[in-house]
Write a structure and sequence with these properties.
With 118 residues, the chain is mainly β. The chain has one helix at residues 2-10, and strands at residues 14-16, 26-34, 39-48, 51-56, 69-70, 77-79, 84-86, 93-94, 103-108, 114-117. It is 8% helix and 41% strand.
């Protein structure tokens, strides 16, 4: 168990070059590793009220995909499969009975990039 806890603190973030250019109210999908082959992760980065958020692109409801592009109502990520919306900061589904989407820690760097802890 100690090894598992230690691995959480020892992880290094994945770098997303140029993420600082992400516009307010928009989302962009970024792939880390090979998400199709099962050895990677797809993450949707978005900016709401000036803050960048990182959410797993897999919708927790029936395997849909959270899309990139303009955010619903300017502040919610959306899965087009059933039109479910998610809060980017918590992953909570809005007006739907659905598990939370996975949210990742993200930090913008002074150089205009972003670090995402997967």
């Amino acid at each position: 168990m100690f090894r598992r806890i230690a691995s959480l603190f020892g992880r290094k973030p994945a770098l997303v070059k140029g993420a600082g250019r992400l516009e307010e109210g928009t989302a962009k999908k970024v792939d880390f590793g090979d998400p199709i082959g099962g050895r990677g992760v797809s993450v949707v980065l978005c900016r709401v009220e000036g803050v960048m958020h990182a959410v797993d692109a897999r919708c927790p409801h029936e395997g849909g995909r959270i899309t990139e592009g303009p955010l619903a109502e300017g502040k919610y990520l959306q899965c087009p499969l059933h039109m479910y919306m998610f809060e980017p900061d918590t992953g909570r589904a809005v007006n739907a009975t659905c598990r939370k989407a996975t949210v990742y820690k993200v930090r913008e760097t002074e150089g205009g990039d972003a670090e995402v802890w997967l």
